[in-house]
User: What shape does this take?
Amino acid sequence: MRKKKFLQHMLLGSFVAVACLTTLDLNLNKTLTAQAKTADYVTEAQSVQDSTSDFDIEDGVLKKYNGSASSVVIPDGVTEIGNDAFKRNVVLRSVTISDSVEKIGNSAFDSCTNLQSVVLPDTVGVIGEYAFSNCKKLENVNLPENLKELDGGAFLNCTGIKKITIPKSLEKVEAANWGTEGPFAGCSNLKTVNFEKGITNIPDC
Assistant: This one.
């Protein structure tokens, strides 16, 4: 009889111990989950803050990008991407330019050798000298419908470009390097060039 009661007490004690451990484990899991969510929130907040501070913007001109992201969205309110702003950024793979941008400066994306995609809004009216030169992985480029000026060497040596459409809005085409380099000089794989009806200036490809 005593042995039976002893076994009952042992079993009851085991269940109580398991229940306590389960409760402790659940509470611990809740605490860890809450901490993980807090950490994620902090990381996300830091990411947003860091991405904003990565842009050196002055009077609407993006002077320099100091970040390390492979995909970049130009902030709203930027009206011009300044000269050399992303020059030799080998991490950059894609750029989305906001529709507040009206001008892309000289050598803005020069030698961004891993740049594969760029979204140019129709608000861009000027693409400067060597703006995208030596971006050899850049393939699909849609020139803005309201583009008015396309300067020499703008897409120099962009060997990934196979076709391009020149918009009828184009008014001015320049050549760089004492007139020897047109906007698409060195684009050795450019095989198809379409001109919108009504165009008056045909760039030297």
User: Anything to note?
Assistant: The radius of gyration is 29 Å. Residues 1-50 have pLDDT under 50 and may be disordered. Helices lie at 2-53. The chain is about 25% helix and 20% strand.
